[in-house]
Amino acid sequence: MSAKIGDTMFGEIVGKVTASKDPAIKVGDYAQAYAGWVTHAVVNGKQTQRIPELPEGVPLTLTVGTLGMPGLTAYFGLKEVAQLKETDTVLVNAAAGAVGSVVGQIAKIKGCKVIGSVGSDEKVKYLKEELGFDEAYNYKVVTPDKLGDELKKLAPNGIDVFFENVGGEASSVIYSHINQKGRVAVCGSISSYNVKGDKPKVTEFIHLLIYKSIRVEGFNVMTYFARRDDALKEMVVWLKEGKLKYREHKFENFESMFDAFAALFTGQNTGKVVVTV
Ligand SMILES: NC(=O)c1ccc[n+]([C@@H]2O[C@H](COP(=O)([O-])OP(=O)(O)OC[C@H]3O[C@@H](n4cnc5c(N)ncnc54)[C@H](OP(=O)(O)O)[C@@H]3O)[C@@H](O)[C@H]2O)c1
Questions:
Q1: Nearest Cα residue to 89 out of 40, 160, 184, 151
Q2: For 105, how many CA atoms within 13 A lie in the half-sphere containing its CB?
Q3: Tens of pLDDT, residue by residue, the chain (277 residues)
Q4: Measuring from atom 10 of ligand 1, which residue has the nearest CA?
Q5: What angle do CA 72, 251, 241 make, to 5 degrees?
Q6: Please, which residues bridge with residue 115 across strands?
Q7: Which residues make Cβ contacts (< 8 Å) with residue 173, sequence separation at least 6?
Q8: Could you tell me the sign of the dihedral formed by the alpha carbons of 217, 9, 272, 244, in that order?
Q9: What interhelical angle do 69-76 and 228-240 show, nearest 10?
Q10: Residue of the nearest CA to atom 28 in ligand 1?
């Protein structure tokens, strides 16, 4: 998916209904839609999503974060794509972000050992002290040449599930630490999105897939949206129980859209980037 100059940039919004011709949607209701970067949207009622019942004190913006598309990506990526088991050791990268932070927490809820890769020491601290990850490392310090030794320490019994958000050379090293019958949920490859010319490569893994019987599956969360409501019910319970924590990185005003988007690529954000208009 890519946007051309002049297109409305894609994205999800949640907002108040100011006029409605759909009897099921009332003025004053809140609704969610993939309307892109806009201050106001005209959408077909059938293309709007229902807002899940939010626990008290939970901001509406969580419906585009932990209780929205990114949270569901984590949920279905682990449950359906990675076929998560309680005995698994899970490694997730971009682990302090909107998807990764939920991946790690759900895997902990399910009883797994969880390791996170992030781009700063502050985020390492956040994962371990606030989100309950077992281990975390800063990939800017633990560069691919050092990663093998680090993973021997952090995951001495190997990795069963790799939740891939980033791609690139570090992933080659991670693949070589995946166990027999390991599973890779390929969610994203953010390290390559803005690269023109030669993309960062996962270089050495095909032979590993063969002799370790590793299953690698890419997925798009939309595939699972028919089961969205049941997943959200379960996640709301975890939120109420304090097992699912979140941070949002908020920007104000429509004019900050570009800065908000750019933050994703510099790692400025912790948790979901949200713009309030
Ligand atoms: N398959 C699907 O259906 C689906 C759905 C939603 C999202 N996604 C994908 O999931 C991934 C995470 O999305 P998100 O919304 O949760 O974003 P996010 O994690 O909230 O933000 C992106 C994070 O990626 C890290 N990052 C950026 N450039 C990097 C690089 N070159 N190398 C390593 N890390 C880098 C940064 O954290 P650090 O500070 O740690 O570097 C940044 O904070 C993305 O690849 C996205 O495209 C896929």
A1: 160
A2: 27
A3: 677 899 999 999 999 999 999 999 999 999 999 999 999 999 998 889 878 888 888 999 999 999 999 999 999 999 999 999 999 999 999 999 999 999 999 999 999 999 999 999 999 999 999 999 999 999 999 999 999 999 999 999 999 999 999 999 999 999 999 999 999 999 999 999 998 888 877 777 888 899 899 999 999 999 999 999 999 999 999 999 999 999 999 999 999 999 999 999 999 999 999 999 9
A4: 188
A5: 40
A6: 91, 135
A7: 144, 147, 148, 151
A8: negative
A9: 100
A10: 265
Q: Which of 75, 123, 264, 266 to mutate to test the pocket of ligand 1 (most atoms within 8 A of CB)?
A: 264
Range list of H helices, the chain: 69-76, 100-109, 121-125, 144-154, 169-175, 206-211, 228-240, 257-266
So where are the chain's domains? 1-51, 69-221
Helices (H) and strands (E) in the chain, counts: 8, 10
DSSP type of residue 66:
T
Q: Quote the tokens at residue 230.
A: 């049941």
Kindly give the number of the ligand 1 atom that is closest to the alpha carbon of 218.
1
Both structure tokens of 44: 């077909």
CATH of 69-221, one of 3.10.580.10, 3.40.190.10, 3.90.1300.10, 3.40.50.720: 3.40.50.720
Q: Per the structure block, which two tokens stand in for 276?
A: 């309030």
